[in-house]
């Protein structure tokens, strides 16, 4: 392979959610503590999606190479673009980052370091970025812990974080592994969790790298009405339609009560998860305890939105599918 790393950035999010534009994401990649001459940046999307991506600023020449990888299908979905990126990449390691994600300077070095140490896949802390708040501000840390804390296992110890899942906007993988285990292409956000499960079933090693931090752009309106509403809607949809989806037998007998009980349990889980998440994001123990009421407040809002999403699927799944789109 000519390049150590292929950083993959898909056009899908910019085209569909418009939370941020890709030049800002690339500017954060240019600040990496890693030799960029060993990196190719591959911009993937449909031909129409990449129309506005053709202009390559001179500063991007610090990468070993920057190239566009257009797909014939202009309606290609997010997961299809992920799979296509693996086929066209020329690096030994695939580093996935979305066009609305801002990688911190240690992101790539941590990702590559984990794989060089023997891992097949590396994941790390995902945060949120906002136009008005710093990613490490209390409000955004609380929101991120609720949204992305599940990637960190409850079995983690202070000096040994353990991966529990994967989110596709912040992941690195050996290309040879990605060729063996593609993403499933159903148009639902939980495919990254399915991807993680299939990697583990095939006994590939997935590690959690605290330095692999990246912040997903957000607005609080999107966070409530799209990110967490969708999570609840998709959960109810998957529980009803997928035989293998995790279910709680006793709650299945009282479906109208299930969203309340399930999301109440998630709030309690979020409080526990916060004390794991705060370690990998550099929050002190004292600050973590002081922030606990904020964590509870943000969790209650997010899980409330998920509860609404579950009820919307029960009452009018077709009419609310657009709101739950991914």
Task: Sum this structure up briefly.
It contains 13 helices and 10 strands.
Explain this structure to me?
- By secondary structure, the chain is of the alpha/beta class.
- It folds into two domains: 3-124 and 163-217, Spore Coat Polysaccharide Biosynthesis Protein SpsA, Chain A (Alpha-Beta Complex), CATH 3.90.550.10; 220-320, no CATH class.
- 44% of the residues lie in helices and 16% in strands.
- Strands 3-2-1-4-8-6-9 form a seven-stranded mixed β-sheet, sandwiched between helices.
- Helix 5 packs across helix 10 (258-280).
- The longest helix is centred in the last third of the chain and has 24 residues, at 292-315.
Question: Any key phrases for this structure?
Answer:
44% helix; alpha/beta; Spore Coat Polysaccharide Biosynthesis Protein SpsA, Chain A
Layout of secondary structure:
Layout: E1 3-10, H1 12-16, H2 22-29, E2 39-46, E3 65-71, H3 78-88, E4 91-97, E5 101-103, H4 107-116, E6 121-123, E7 126-129, H5 138-148, E8 170-174, H6 175-180, H7 191-201, E9 206-208, E10 214-217, H8 220-241, H9 249-252, H10 258-280, H11 285-290, H12 292-315, H13 317-320
Helix pairs in contact: 5-10, 5-12, 8-12, 10-12
Shape: globular
How many alpha or pi helices? Answer: 13
CATH topology type of the largest domain: Spore Coat Polysaccharide Biosynthesis Protein SpsA, Chain A
Strand order of the largest sheet: 3-2-1-4-8-6-9
State mean pLDDT (0 to 100 scale).
Answer: 91
Work out the helicity level.
Answer: 40-55%
Low-confidence stretches: none
What class would the helix/strand composition place it in? alpha/beta
CATH level-two architecture of the largest domain: Alpha-Beta Complex
Helix/strand order = EHHEEHEEHEEHEHHEEHHHHHH
Mind describing the biggest β-sheet? 7 strands, mixed
């Amino acid at each position: 392979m000519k390049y150590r790393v292929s950083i993959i950035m898909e056009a899908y999010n910019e085209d569909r959610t418009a939370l941020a534009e890709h030049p800002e994401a690339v500017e954060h990649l240019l600040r990496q503590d890693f030799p960029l001459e060993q990196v190719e940046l591959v911009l993937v999307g449909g031909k129409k999606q990449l129309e506005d991506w053709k202009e390559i600023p001179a500063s991007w020449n610090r990468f070993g190479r920057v190239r566009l990888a257009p797909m014939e299908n202009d309606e290609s979905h997010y997961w299809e673009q992920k799979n296509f990126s693996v086929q066209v990449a020329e690096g030994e390691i695939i580093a996935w980052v979305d066009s609305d994600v801002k990688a911190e300077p240690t992101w790539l070095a941590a990702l590559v370091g984990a794989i060089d140490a023997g891992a097949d896949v590396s994941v790390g802390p995902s945060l949120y970025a906002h136009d008005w708040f710093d990613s490490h501000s209390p409000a955004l840390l609380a929101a991120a812990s609720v949204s992305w804390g599940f990637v960190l296992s409850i079995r983690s110890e202070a000096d040994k974080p353990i991966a529990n899942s994967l989110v596709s906007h912040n992941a690195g993988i050996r290309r040879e592994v990605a060729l063996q285990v593609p993403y499933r292409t159903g148009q639902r956000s939980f495919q990254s969790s399915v991807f993680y499960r299939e990697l583990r079933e095939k006994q590939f090693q997935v590690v959690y790298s605290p330095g692999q931090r990246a912040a997903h752009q957000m607005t609080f309106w999107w966070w409530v009405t799209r990110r967490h509403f969708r999570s609840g809607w998709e959960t109810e949809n998957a529980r009803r339609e997928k035989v293998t989806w995790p279910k709680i037998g006793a709650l299945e007998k009282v479906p109208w009560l299930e969203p309340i009980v399930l999301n109440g349990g998630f709030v309690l889980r979020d409080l526990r998860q916060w004390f794991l998440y705060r370690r990998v994001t550099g929050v002190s123990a004292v600050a973590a305890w002081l922030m606990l009421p904020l964590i509870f407040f943000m969790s209650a809002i997010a899980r409330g939105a998920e509860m609404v999403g579950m009820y919307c699927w029960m009452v009018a799944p077709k009419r609310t599918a657009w709101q739950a789109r991914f």
